[in-house]
Amino acid sequence: MTRDQLQTASDELRAAAERATDPELQERLAEQADQFDQLATADRGPDQGRLARHLNALSDIRESLDGDAVAHVDDAEEAITAYRETVGGV
To answer: In this structure, is residue 21 part of a structural domain?
Structure first.
């Protein structure tokens, strides 16, 4: 089962990584993209806590980005938030 919103987040983060100019930020974004790719097809979806940790990490990364990369991170966060609304918990 594919969780479309998490796959969208992965795709957007990969696009952000391609547009980032700092190699460290490129790597961090690519790692986040890989994690969301795995979460999109895992047997069980992530819980609220895991999603919150990812959103916090993306917020930290965004502070060091500019241009198109920021827009892709924003789009990824929107997809994650939309998925998060379907998850029970907090």
So the answer is: yes
Is 46 within 8 Å of 86 (Cβ atoms)? no
* Nearest of 41, 25, 39 to residue 73 by alpha carbon: 25
Query: What are the tokens at 39?
Result: 């979460």
N- to C-terminal Cα separation, the chain: 24
**The whole model's pTM is what?**
0.93
Classify the phi-psi angles of 32: left when phi > 0, otherwise alpha if psi is within -120 to 50, otherwise beta: alpha
Q: Which domain holds residue 51?
A: 4-84
Q: In total, how many domains does the chain have?
A: 1
Using one digit for the tens of pLDDT, what is the confidence trace for 55-80?
A: 999 999 999 998 899 999 999 999 99
Classify residue 89: in a domain, yes or no: no
**Is position 90 within any domain?**
no
